[in-house]
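Annotated sample (chain length 357).
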Amino acid sequence: MSTRKTCAFRPGSGGLEPTHAAQFARWGVDYLKYDSCWASNDHETAFVEYAAMRDALNSTGRPVLYSLCGWNAWYATEGARLANSWRIAADCDEWANVYVAVRTNEALHAYAGPGHYNDPDMLLGSNPEAPAQLHPKQVQAQFSLWAVMAAPLLIGSRLLDMPASDLETYLNAEVIAIDQDPLGVQGVPVWSNCPAFAPRDNWWNSPWSMPHEVAVAWSQALAALATVTLTSAMLLRRSVGRLGRCSGAARALLMSLALLSASYIGVIWHFRPRVDACQQVWVRPLHDGAHAFCLINFAPTETEVVCDKECMRRAGVPSESLVAVRDVVRHRDLGDMSQIGVKLEGNGGSVLYRVTA
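Output written by the structure step:
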């Protein structure tokens, strides 16, 4: 998306949006994911840049699903006028970032609706040959949560040799029907014991997505650190007088590299994503009056998760009556209940129920 370059350091579309959009239309493109690598981190500037491609696509007359890929929750406030979907968090390349995406999306439900949706990123899969993968139970948990969040279902794993368990998960028509429910309402957590969560800018999580001005400032800081380290080492060599010119320069270089590495590792360690030991109940209303319930356990140990009558009331389900519960993952009816409770495995155990009053 940047006026400078793409994520792969190739020329970007800045200033050439009409030309590129026209070419996409001639190629018969149906879906365009427009990335934010090296783009401005100034909100208004980013909105203007994305709007330029929106207008260019619309001018072609070809209906193209426009996916804004900005990695930050603040895109949601303007997402509906800019694109059909917009990324709201860092890449889901591990379970911890799946958790971050889920927690980030809690507060963004009001911005989603028919034709415009929050995008918590791709489905990761469990293929051991892929660069990143989840455990099969986490694959199911992500798919179920994405369905309740009305999120785009895009598989980001290897397709040619996908594990049978992933195929079973991703071909589940009942779960897909929940995700594609025509009401188009994003679900929300109606019960949670997770700690408070505040989304943050996510360029730190992917160095290649660093905004241009941040990349310049970071490079200048590293260059200054290297200069100070090298100067200090040379002054020390002159004072002590025991190191030769070559060995002094080599030591200075090694010292600079060590300090730069320690600085980088420290930043990554501080900002690394973490999974809290907690549980949630997400609920999404469906067009026929039913509700989709996803109970998820993020803690490392098996835990019972219960949506009691008060939880059911917050979900919009009458608490004075029984409800019919269907497990849509396992395709079986569980009977009538007054509340929902289940023991869930640790590290991503989940269930997805269709509940009818």
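Annotation: Residues 212-240 form the longest helix (29 residues).
Annotation: The chain has ten helices and twelve strands.
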